[in-house]
Amino acid sequence: MDIFDFPPIAALLDGASTALAALGGVVTPGVAIVLVTIAIRTALIPLALATVRAEGHRRRLAPRIAQLRSRFARQPDRLQRETLALYAAEKVSPIAGLLPGLAQAPVLTLVYALFTSPTIDGHANALLSATFLGAPLGRHLIAATSGFLATDGVAIALLVVIAIVAGLSRRAARRIAVPLDPAQQGIADLLSWTPFLTVIFAAIVPLAATVYLAVSTSWTLVERAVMRRVLWAR
């Protein structure tokens, strides 16, 4: 059984489809996705603020963390306990940076389902015929292996935008990164490339989800730059 046919999930999809179709009656479906993305990211501003504050706290605590690493270099378990204790004492969450992404995961899954399911709650999915700048919102760029369409240029352009944003995000993250020991630095350098995984993901999901990712990642880049400038200047 397809999980999207499970009654509660099917009802949720049907409600989301109806709402998006209603918004699509005022603007085009593609613009509706952009507006919904902006609304979602606006609602997530408190989580983003918590993330940027946590980044600032980690930068502030970096010298003390370095001291702990030096003191307990041969006691990794003790180092972990002392580090977590320091975070707790300073009321800093080590997972704050993950919260906005985790909060968006259900939304991205919903968008994916809305533009891949042939039927929603027992009726034909009308959203599959919707377009963005003339490109079908339900089309996967990977489907272009069977022949490119002129409208696939829209998806390619969005992928370029996402790749540029990923590069700028990586550079910004490396600029504000706190010093680490050599072993951890190697892992951090590897993880710094993870924003580019979004490009790969955007290439295999429907164009509707690619639109969402392009708007959301661009929002994150600008949002973090503004928040760091304002909050860290205090």
UniProtKB/TrEMBL annotation:
Membrane topology: Multi-pass membrane protein
Superkingdom, taxonomy of origin: Bacteria
Subcellular location: Membrane
Membrane-crossing residue ranges in chain numbering: 95-115, 141-169, 190-215
This protein's UniProt keywords: Membrane, Transmembrane, Transmembrane helix
Every Membrane insertase YidC/Oxa/ALB C-terminal domain range: 30-228
Cited function: Required for the insertion and/or proper folding and/or complex formation of integral membrane proteins into the membrane. Involved in integration of membrane proteins that insert both dependently and independently of the Sec translocase complex, as well as at least some lipoproteins. Aids folding of multispanning membrane proteins.
Record-stated family: Belongs to the OXA1/ALB3/YidC family. Type 1 subfamily.
Self-association and partners: Interacts with the Sec translocase complex via SecD. Specifically interacts with transmembrane segments of nascent integral membrane proteins during membrane integration.
Name listed for the protein in its UniProt record: Membrane protein insertase YidC
Native organism: Lysinimonas soli
